[in-house]
Predict the 3D structure of the following.
Amino acid sequence: MLAKRIIPCLDVKDGTTVKGVQFVNFRDAGDPVELGKQYSQMGADELVYLDITASHEGRRTFTDLVRRIAAEVSIPFTVGGGIHELSDVERLLAAGADKVSVNSSALRRPELITEIAERFGRQECVCAIDARLEDDGQWRCYLNGGRIPTQRYLFEWAHEAQERGAGEILFTSMNHDGSKQGFANDALARLSDELSIPIIASGGAGTKEHFLDVFQIGHADAALAASVFHFGEIPMRDLKQYLAANGIPVRL
Amino acid sequence: MKVAIIKYNAGNIYSVYCACKRLGHDAIITDDPVVIRQADRVIFPGVGEARAAMQHLNRTGLSEVIRGLRQPVLGICIGMQLLCRHSEEGDVDCLGIFDVPVIRFRPSSRNYKVPQMGWNTIERFKGLLPKAESEESEEADKFEGCERTSETGNPNPLFINLHEGDYVYYVHSFHVPICPYTIAQTDYDGFYSAALHKDNFWATQFHPEKSGPVGEQILRNFLS
């Protein structure tokens, strides 16, 4: 039976992880490669590395980092951030990334998804969507890490991304992100039920129960979180055992 | 041991190289027929689209090189599908090592997403290979120190030290049905072939290079 996936997300700037990491005692807690290996050994199913570097030089550092991750980590990993054109995708996949995640650049130019799917196959392309539930009851999509509102809306954009060839949708609810009050299960369930590609839930993880809910109520195929893992608030093994005990298929 | 990884127009080849490296093998990524033929083990990896891949293999002559290999060969993912007779992806004739078609997932319910993406279990390593197959697979003897699959005997050499229900990583929209070459199966809206074996050819639909310690064991078995 296909397992539900648990995915730690690491923000990387200039080759080091940005958010503090407190769950393990090793010397370089900022080394994304060491962290990836640790998470892999703890039972993470996949990793997401987001490059939040703005500079050109930083991009090169990130590509070198991707090569090192590929050399040392034996589980799949997705990379995102700063992917604007096909040559960015080519560079990162050649460096050993398994998938690329596109967000703002795809909203600005949806053809990018089509191009990635046609050139590399739809399984390589994750469409990340940051959306906020507005007062009018609509889920509006935002650009640039949630800073710039657009005229696109979650469900129609997710459908278009699927039609264009996205292999997965990574949906972050801006309302829930950082709240630790649980995932956006209603919107996730609708996404998951309407689309035929896997949905990765992001934003809101605070407890083990939230992960159970996102699979049972939110019908998500995978759940992504950062701080609850980085700060050791939810140990990976405990989480998986809890999910298994509650009937969720997970890789133990 | 010389390990060749066949280079063609499909992705994910560097990951396979890294996985070999972690096991202490400095594999050569190559499209040179001479180097491929001389290798002790050949890995035919890939993530990509079947039609484009076959056109490339036919144009470059790699099709004939692969068909003629006598040493142990391991096809991975699209590499496995290309070793089959025909793929529904792009409606293209493939290499025909395994006389079985590759077909698209047609989910019976919305619970089954396509592509299948993530970790699923492999099971039934024994007893799926028909007797006729194991009797004529002399080439498999080159897979040193390993027993062949039989109805009651040891697991296929690819699966030594693995356990029923171990998780492996999958990313695919097309699959090979259960057939006489099936040596392990996976359930995704019904059973399909997780791995195939015929003579000196082995193949996995999943990605051993991305399947953590389980995948490393499978690669170690192949490279032993």
In short: Chain A touches chain B at residues 1-5, 40, 45-46, 67, 70-72, 74-76, 93-96, 98, 120-124, 167-168, 193, 195-198, 221-222, 251 (CB under 8 Å). Chain A is about 40% helix and 25% strand.
